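Let's do one together. I've listed all components of the complex below, 912 residues spread over two lines.
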Amino acid sequence: MLLEDLRRDLPADRLVDDPDVVAGYVHDEAEWAPHGKPEVVVRPRSAEEVQAVVRACLAHGTPLVTRGAGTGLSGGANAVDGCVLLSTELMTAVREIDESERLAVVEPGVVNDDLRAACAERGLWYPPDPASAPWSTIGGNVATNAGGLCCVKYGVTRDYVLGMQVVTGTGELVRLGRRTAKGVAGYDLAGLMVGSEGTLGVVTEVTVKLRPLRDPEHTVAGYFSSIVDAGRAVAAVADAGITPSALELVDRHCLAAVDAWKNMGLSVEADVVLLGRTDAPGAAGEQEADRMLACFEEGGATWAARSTDQEEADALFSARRLAYPALERLGPLLTEDVCVPKAAVPEMLARIEAAAQRHDTHIANIAHAGDGNLHPLLSTPPGDDAARERAQEAFHDIIRDALELGGTVTGEHGVGLLKKDGLGLELDGEVVAMHRAVKTALDPHGILNPGKVIPD
Amino acid sequence: MLLEDLRRDLPADRLVDDPDVVAGYVHDEAEWAPHGKPEVVVRPRSAEEVQAVVRACLAHGTPLVTRGAGTGLSGGANAVDGCVLLSTELMTAVREIDESERLAVVEPGVVNDDLRAACAERGLWYPPDPASAPWSTIGGNVATNAGGLCCVKYGVTRDYVLGMQVVTGTGELVRLGRRTAKGVAGYDLAGLMVGSEGTLGVVTEVTVKLRPLRDPEHTVAGYFSSIVDAGRAVAAVADAGITPSALELVDRHCLAAVDAWKNMGLSVEADVVLLGRTDAPGAAGEQEADRMLACFEEGGATWAARSTDQEEADALFSARRLAYPALERLGPLLTEDVCVPKAAVPEMLARIEAAAQRHDTHIANIAHAGDGNLHPLLSTPPGDDAARERAQEAFHDIIRDALELGGTVTGEHGVGLLKKDGLGLELDGEVVAMHRAVKTALDPHGILNPGKVIPD
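Okay, and this is what the predicted structure of the assembly comes out as:
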């Protein structure tokens, strides 16, 4: 029996089978994705304990679903019926921060913001900053190849993972990647693990690259009377050759939801707010901020200014980060994550508006606009099945539109369950076959997060 | 018959079987690596022609070895007996440079410097700059995940590949990756192809990310009376939190060889020259150059200065780029490519000197010192078999030392043939098994560059 094996190999406090507690582990924040019922939740404290869990699953042919904080937005960490649900929440050690090598070695359950804070104490910086950074874990960030606000300049999680320790699909505990600045010793299996959503291995330790702390940022805010105008400003920033350190779009619906929740006194005079930042050092930063301001004006801003007040600037960015949970309070949210070429941002935003109207669906928008990574947030009144169906149609239309414009179905949230069909539309059938071949090669017994990512 | 199929499916001028011409294709620049004799050399002009070649190889179970310019340094592109040798030299189209998306789409045979020049005309920059940039191709750079001089700040080829078109091991022509700034749609198969040295697919088109042209660089040069002092200066730069845009080490042997060849009037008063650059914009660049200078002095420079003369600075960097071909003129070269943690650079350089003495072998040193990526160049008098044997022993000692210091056997040249044994030392047996499983998954018939990379 699986449970007997787990009880034999792990300290008793690692196993959770109280149904009320287990219920808190069955799905991530993709409320619309289906989930099953795990047989047991395990919370290992070491790589060796993770290995024992994987081996027990192998022995019994039991599916294994790994999860971090459960802030995922695509159902990637949702339980499969009868699975072992492995939570990394107790593996929270920051093992090492090496200042001269500029790297950190952490357990997968370390919260993103906690790593950031530990690095800052040493004058170092871990850039990837998903909006979920106060809650999400490095392991989860690695599993989804999480993006974030500063990724427009500094890249995504993948760009910071040097190496990792992994329990493989055959139950071996191995090291992939490296600690050196460069390295091409064999296939990039560490890179392959990043973004594979727990389907190719279970990460037990991650070695990430760090940067020196950067210069303070300059913030530019712009108000626009239409989302399409804001999209034009975004395109103008790209065309001007500016590399902002953030370029975020937040619409009135999001600002209002945050304000209603947190009473931050946010202005909602505008339909859309664009928030740009630059961290170019010294005078170059001042100049870049001025050029960004000119682009906002060129795009048709009704009001735009460089923020002289750091608190005000921080409040605007906090509002951006709180937009998702604020809207979530108002009803079930279906989150989109399409990413389109930068030049296609105005057209894509217009198509999102059209989909909202066509399917009579409320769609709020937040976007990593500088990356072309858009997050239309589709919400429906609780219990309104017809509205739910209309929202799903809008969701599919948005996917189709993004692909038509040369985009991808997921910029940073991952495929999980919500984007499996979309992935099937995006990839050639032969590429799906390559996915299956790689999956079978590294998880020959099919126990790792089965049914996720790869289109059926 | 294979040749009949190729003649049927390709225009006649794509096939080369004149033995004198074929002889020019049998190996790359890793003179010490063995090579076989190809049955035929093919020079396709399109992805469809590449696909026809792969399918012919599949039909006849014939090995296929792909090569770019043949500037590789590990034997990765060396012919296998009876293989089809596919040269990408006629696939040289720069299909597209998109200024607002900051990307380029190129055929694999485009020379690195040609892409760089084409981008510069549009105010854009393709950073990866292997010393072979005037000759090596983007396809070859992708196959080896090539590094270069500016990688210490800007990353390696892998960091710039967004997507690609590939003929798979089953003869399908597919697209991997994306054109958007971000994307996590499925496994990172494009990333897996980068650095796989032609063993997982044949790249027929590459989409690369570009940056805006950067600010002019400031150069700092330092002379050192020992390689260990220079190593200390490198560690000081890292500890000071400086991110140079290049930090290169060249020893007296290299400078003398370049001077003997090109008569550049280079100073060879010093045992070792360190060349640092920074491209931080405006006043920040001036400050960073001054701080780097202080680090050189702290490391024990006998002379150090910021170059006020751009021509002089360019001459020093040209000498760096010419070091390898200059030494190659003097006799067979065995090229090392170990990469160690930055703090271990002084110790590793000392160990290289010790290996040279212990095995009575002439070792010149060039290094991407800021990355800890060292290229000891072992040379022997032509025809001296005993010296050759001693050099091989030194080569193995250097690999062992690098692994002992937490390094990798190859920082940027790839495994090919020269580092297969070293890779076996570096990777766990289980990780080698993962390599074999991935290789079999994507090249089920074993035709793609067999016998390379994966330890036997």
